Amino acid sequence: MEIREYQHEDLEKVLNIDGRPSRRRADKFRLLESSDSFYCYVAEEGQRVIGFVIMEDLGDEVSHYMVQINSAEKRRGIGRKLVQKVFERTEKGRHISLCVNTDNEVAIKFYESLGFRRSGFTEGYRKGQNKFWYQVDI
């Protein structure tokens, strides 16, 4: 498996990472391709993209937008490797923030294992879902 920077040629692969297109993914990748503040890494195995992470560089802070792993490939450390690549890119003295649905125990445990600490809560953030906010200092 290789972790590398996203290229436009990866677009169809990431939009259909689980075999079904996603409007949310498409919206995120439109932002990625139209703004210099967004960047993405993909996990590739053979000729298949099996995961990706999209981030936004906000100056003092880096904001997590999305991590997605092909459902058949989960629990192989792909997400951890993608996030560690973001850690490597992030300059010392900055921090990374993200939000997680309060009922997504798997994601909460994952981010906490990477050193993220809960920094806030928002009720009804999107589609009525409550969110925990997390942050890690680099």
- Look at the structure and give the mean pLDDT: 91
Question: Could you give the distance between the termini?
Answer: 25 Å
> Largest beta sheet: what is the strand line-up?
1-2-3-4-5-7-6
Number of discrete domains = 2
Report on the structure:
With 138 residues, the chain is of the alpha+beta class. It folds into 2 domains: 1-90, 3-Layer(aba) Sandwich (Aminopeptidase); 92-138, no CATH class. It is 28% helix and 41% strand. The chain has 4 helices and 7 strands; from the N terminus they run βααβββαβαββ. It has helices at 11-15, 23-34, 78-89, 105-113, and strands spanning 2-5, 38-45, 48-57, 61-69, 95-101, 117-126, 129-137. Strands 1-2-3-4-5-7-6 form a 7-stranded mixed β-sheet. α3 (78-89) links the parallel β4 (61-69) and β5. The longest helix is centred in the first third of the chain and has 12 residues, at 23-34. The chain is globular and about 40 Å long. The mean pLDDT is 91.
Name the descriptors.
138 residues; alpha+beta; Aminopeptidase; 4 helices
Brief write-up:
This protein has a seven-stranded mixed beta sheet.
What are the SSEs and their pairings?
Layout: E1 2-5, H1 11-15, H2 23-34, E2 38-45, E3 48-57, E4 61-69, H3 78-89, E5 95-101, H4 105-113, E6 117-126, E7 129-137
Parallel strand pairs: 4-5
Antiparallel strand pairs: 1-2, 2-3, 3-4, 5-7, 6-7
